[in-house]
């Protein structure tokens, strides 16, 4: 059973929600390829909101340039509540990595709600000779040109997870950029890259199928659905911790009352007890706050990563 099918079933639970907006369809823009964690989460949420609002809520994939192509489309959209954007934590750091963005991160969007936190996982192909994190680090130091790692775009959370791993461990690995989590995952499954950093929900199916092996998770604590997989900190890089968050934005200038209503409906959809449990079983931690909470999270992430990205000399390398 596919991960997307499972999430669709989770969100199909019928709950009374507040109908908002007009009869026009709402679009949720996913700035990454279909099949990854961002896309799967968006499709489940779209299904629930469509029921709530009694009108279509459709998902459109607009991948490329570490999520900036799809984000620009939403930034230029009408602030009528009919075009929304699902973003991962790389949205906050894109401005620190790219010399010029086609929008202003803090000025051109309306924060609506954070929805989940998601840990990442360090993967190798099933036949990889590396059995643990320290073996991987040692091999990269012995042959600096030997290893690369797959990731879904410059400045994304999984890319920063990889670069922070290199900085803290001394590992020598060059990133190989793909258009999304699913594409980098398929390349490590196919042994086209020797290492990849992916979200836990996106990778869980391939881990369970034995097509890849999980060396470590990037979160501060072990992930219950991968309980035998150590954290990178436990595996030999003390103090290491990175997670991905996801949230919903709209274009700038949205009506504050409309933003509150959408936030309330997202909260109702995401915080049902069964939904919370089943998302947790997939590796997602539900975390809904107010629009202002989400705005502050984005600002805090920019401040957190600014010195780290600056020290990595990543700006403009896109």
TrEMBL record:
Gene3D superfamilies associated with the record = Bordetella uptake gene, domain 1, Periplasmic binding protein-like II
Where does the secretion signal sit in this chain?
Answer: 1-19
Q: Which key words tag this protein in UniProt?
A: Signal
Domain of life, per lineage: Bacteria
User: One Pfam family from the UniProt entry?
Assistant: TctC
Q: Which family does it belong to?
A: Belongs to the UPF0065 (bug) family.
- Kindly provide the name given to this protein in its UniProt entry: ABC transporter substrate-binding protein
Species in which this protein is naturally found? Pollutimonas nitritireducens
Lineage per the UniProt record: Bacteria, Pseudomonadati, Pseudomonadota, Betaproteobacteria, Burkholderiales
């Amino acid at each position: 059973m596919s991960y997307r099918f499972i999430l669709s079933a989770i969100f199909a639970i019928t709950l009374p929600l507040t109908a908002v907006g007009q009869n026009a369809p709402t679009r949720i823009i996913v700035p990454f390829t279909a099949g990854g964690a961002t896309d799967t989460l968006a499709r489940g949420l779209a299904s629930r909101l469509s029921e709530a609002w009694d009108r279509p809520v459709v998902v459109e994939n607009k991948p490329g340039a570490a999520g900036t192509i799809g984000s620009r489309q939403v930034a230029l959209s009408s602030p009528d509540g009919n075009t929304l954007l699902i973003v991962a934590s790389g949205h906050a750091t894109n401005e620190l990595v790219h010399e010029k963005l086609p929008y202003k991160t803090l000025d051109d969007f309306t924060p609506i709600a954070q929805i989940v936190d998601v840990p990442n996982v360090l993967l190798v192909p099933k036949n990889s000779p590396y059995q643990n994190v320290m073996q991987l680090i040692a091999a990269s130091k012995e042959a600096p040109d030997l290893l690369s790692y797959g990731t879904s775009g410059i400045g994304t959370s999984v890319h920063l997870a990889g670069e922070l791993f290199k900085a803290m461990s001394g590992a020598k690995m060059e990133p190989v950029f793909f258009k999304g989590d699913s594409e980098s995952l398929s390349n490590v499954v196919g042994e086209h890259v020797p290492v990849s950093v992916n979200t836990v929900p996106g990778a869980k199916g391939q881990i369970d199928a034995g097509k890849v092996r999980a060396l470590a998770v990037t979160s501060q604590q072990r992930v219950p659905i991968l309980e035998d997989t150590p954290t990178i900190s436990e595996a030999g890089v003390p103090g290491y911790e990175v997670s991905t968050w996801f949230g919903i934005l709209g274009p700038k200038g949205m009506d504050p009352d409309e933003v509150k209503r959408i936030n309330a409906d997202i909260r109702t959809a995401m915080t049902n007890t069964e939904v919370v449990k089943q998302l947790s079983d997939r590796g997602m931690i539900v975390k809904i706050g107010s629009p202002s909470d989400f705005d502050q999270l984005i600002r805090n992430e920019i401040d957190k990563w600014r010195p780290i990205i600056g020290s990595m000399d990543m700006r403009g390398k896109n």
